[in-house]
Amino acid sequence: PRVELHSGRCVTLEALARKSVAPVLTVKSPVRGSYDSAVVGANFSDGSRAAIQATLQLFQNAKVTALHAYRRPRESFGGLQGSDGTYLYHLNECTRFVADAVPDAWRKIRCLAEIGFPETLLKQYVLDRRVDLIVVGLEERNPISTFLIGGTIRPLIRLSPCDLLIAPAGW
User: Taking the model in full, what pTM does it have?
Assistant: First the structure.
């Protein structure tokens, strides 16, 4: 049976993860063995760097994918600007970021770049490929900026179809 987290529990779990010095794992269903696959949200931040490093350290045998979500370029009078090379640019940036985060193991990680919102893309990737674990990094923010600009953590806590590991920046 699936447990739905209410908004209050999401806020509490996010607050716990923000105060933690170690990654926090939320488990959606009974454990059946080791994690065979993981997808890491890669937004090129210190938090996503910690997420990649935590994934490789804690789940050494898992197949790991780094997924970078980006927004479509704005339209202009001449149509979409920069769309021809936008995908390749973001894919190359993701690969560079992963190589910098884990120089000795970056070739083990598959890099993807997709247009869309991170929480939507991560959830869909898990459902399409039956991934065991989503891993995201948590940025150090004050509560006001989190309220004003939002974040990916709270929707993922509530909507993740699989287990979720939240790694604090600097871990």
Answer: 0.83
Distance separating alpha carbons of residues 139 and 90, to the nearest angstrom: 21
What's the DSSP call for residue 40? E
Phi, psi of 144 (to 5 degrees): -65, -45
13, 111 contact by CB (below 8 A): no
- Phi and psi of 90, rounded to 5°? -65, -35
Residue 39 · residue 156 · CB < 8 Å: no
The CA distance from 17 to 167, in Å, is: 8
**pLDDT tens-digit readout, 11-49:** 677 778 878 889 999 898 887 889 999 999 999 999 999
DSSP, collapsed to helix, strand or coil, labels residue 70 as: strand
Q: What's the token pair of residue 90?
A: 């973001």
H-helix segments, the chain:
7-19, 46-58, 83-101, 118-129, 143-149, 153-159
Nearest to 138 by CA among 67, 47, 73, 46: 47
